[in-house]
Amino acid sequence: MPVNVKAKLVKKEALKKDVFKFSVKAKEIVDISKPGHFIEIRVSDQVEPFLRRPISIYNMDKENGILEFIFQVKGKGTDILSQKQVGDEVDIIGPLGNGKFDYSKYQNLAIIGGGIGVFPLYELAKEAKEDGKNVTTYLGFRNKDFVLLEDEFKNVSDELVLATDDGSYGKNGFAINFLKEDIEKGKIDSIYACGPLPMLRAVKKLAEETGIPAQVSLEEKMGCGMGVCLGCAVKTASSPKDSPSYVYVCKTGPVFDSTFVEF
Amino acid sequence: MNLEVNLGGIKLKNPVTVASGTFGYGREYSEFYDLGEIGAICTKGTSLRPKTGNKAPRVCETSSGMLNAIGLENKGLEYFAEFDLPFLKKFDTKIIVNTFGSTVEDYVEACRFLNKLDIDGVEINLSCPNVKAGCMAFGNTYEGVKEVTEKCRRVIDKPLIVKLTPNVTDITQTAKAVEDAGADGVSLINTLMGMKIDIDKRRPVLANNTGGLSGPAIKPVAVRMVYQVAQKVKIPILGLGGIVSGDDAIEFMLAGASAISIGSGNFIDPYVAPKTVKGIEDYMKKYNISDVNDIIGKVEMN
User: What is the C-alpha to C-alpha distance for residues B103 and A26, in angstroms, rounded to an integer?
Assistant: First the structure.
């Protein structure tokens, strides 16, 4: 059940040029959020820019009611958001989404993320490790300039595999190739993914080939963020092409079983 | 202070309603406030049979507004009657069911079905720009609007409202057709057809290429059309297009709307509808107006 809060910005950190981590006081949201949930932020009380921005939850400090999210400045909405200062209020609706990462039935988790898709995986890895799961995290970045949160993920993973597409940092190649090797060694019983579409498609294929179940967090352009406008539709894999049946990233997802949807 | 208005036989406790397609069937926003705080809910457009929607992307942001091309996806009237209507009946607000079809006969059948339900009114959509058949195909001529409305009128005893498209040369003609066909009210405006192009991909952003523009960007067009229609017809007008505040609502009412709908404004502020009720009250206090009906159509032209 989402709530709308004006959350006070208590800490602002630039992780890189144009990548910010915000820590806000949002106990009402933190109390009821789970890994995979997202929030929607209204960056201005004016009508320009118009829509809220869907942003994933990076970390929650349940004890102190602190919610952390990381975003990259990509357009005018995130640019306005990035100009907020400590002490300002952030208008947030959350938690949103019903499809959450669910690792309860598994023990040996592979968490794989790419680029700015790695953010929602931190809380997942953290909670899974606290719950006694074996967590291997695979992070892929374009090159060493794009690498983010290495130490943070190391702290919440039993093993961290970091790869860059050009080999300029960490292992050389796509993160999924290293996940594949570990699956072949029998180290993994489930996959949790968020990142660029080509990576998610590769995860879907890998899950099909190996029979290891995968949960993927999808993105789509959203209107309302809560299942009203039906904007962020994604076709179910079982429905026929000429009569497609849709579910919604905001309400059914954003996390789906990789076999359930077509993307 | 009296906030009650009469929308073609539907007595609304206040003039604030929420627009079709921006409020689902009320469930999501009922988690934020008591839906009894608003005058009426216009449901998501629901057709006799279930209908699938368009491919994604279906929505995108534009200057002070957004484009959508959902494609009228819905689960059909039988599902509505079984699952959504009982939920809506829990609230002390009026229920106006928005419906549509791809042929005249579809509209009539849907209206026949709706006439049997415990609802307060029917709004027929002759204005969706995002589907191939029906809707705007009937909605852009006097004759088309009159024919569909007349045939629906024959099977509906409940208040009947017709929602019009602004994508016409002269909206007063289609509004006149609604009145001549015996409907109880007219709602305007639906979205303006628009397009946004991704300049890097050199392709439209929406999978449907074009979509309906809504939000504050269209408000001046909507206010102008409400004013023009108010000069031509006597049936009440449900005014909408970019309303996000009490002040916006007052503008529409001064132009001639008996009630107003909030559409995509719901997406940016879940509390916008009750805030708009409060904003109307504030305006009435400021100008010492005791009856909201005294505002309707009271704009004085220069």
Answer: 50
Instruction: State which fold the B5-294 domain adopts.
Output: TIM Barrel (3.20.20)
Kindly tell me if the per-residue pLDDT of B137 is higher than 80: no
- Tell me: the pLDDT tens digits for A83-120? 999 999 999 999 999 989 999 999 999 999 999 999 99
CB proximity list for A69: less than 8 A, separation 6 or greater: A21, A22, A24, A39, A55, A56, A57, A58, A119
**Does A25 lie at the interface with B, CB-CB under 8 angstroms?**
no
Among B267, B272, B276, most A C-beta atoms within 10 A, so best to mutate, is B267
Q: B194 φ, ψ to 5°? A: -145, 180
How far, in Å, CA of A52 to CA of B152, rounded?
Answer: 39
- Check A221 against B59: CB less than 8 A apart: yes
pTM, rounded to two decimals? 0.96
Tell me which residue in A50, A245, A246 faces B268 most closely, judged by beta carbons: A50
Q: How far is the alpha carbon of A52 from chain B, nearest alpha carbon, in Å?
A: 6
Structure tokens at B287: 């100008």
- CATH assignment of A3-96, given 3.40.190.10, 3.40.50.150, 3.30.450.40, 2.40.30.10? 2.40.30.10
User: What residues contact residue B261 under an 8 Å CB cut-off, 6+ apart?
Assistant: B17, B18, B19, B20, B42, B187, B238, B239, B240, B243
So what's the pLDDT on residue A172? 97
The catalytic residue positions of B are 128
Query: How open is the CA angle B19-B20-B26, to the nearest 5 degrees?
Result: 85
Chain B nearest C-alpha distance from A55 (Å): 15
Of A50, A222, A226, the CB nearest to B28: A226
A227/B contact by beta carbon, under 8 A: yes
Nearest to A66 by CA among A107, A113, A21, A29: A29
CATH number assigned to the domain covering A108-218: 3.40.50.80
DSSP structure class, residue B56: S
pLDDT digits (tens, 9 = 90+) for B248-276: 999 999 999 999 999 999 999 999 999 99
Say if the Cβ atoms of B57 and A220 lie within 8 Å.
Answer: yes
Q: Flag whether residue A93 sits within 8 Å of chain B, measured between CB atoms.
A: yes
Domain boundary assignment for chain A? 3-96, 108-218
What is the predicted pLDDT for the residue at A242? 86
pLDDT reading at B134 higher than 80: no
How does pLDDT run across B270-296, given as a tens digit for each residue? 999 999 999 999 999 999 999 999 999
Which residue, among B48, B183, B164, has the nearest Cα to B122 in the 3D structure? B183
**Interface contact A223-B59, CB threshold 8 A:** yes
Helix (H) or strand (E) holding B239: strand B237-240
Q: What is the pLDDT of residues B25-65, one digit of tens each?
A: 999 999 999 999 999 999 999 999 999 999 999 999 999 99
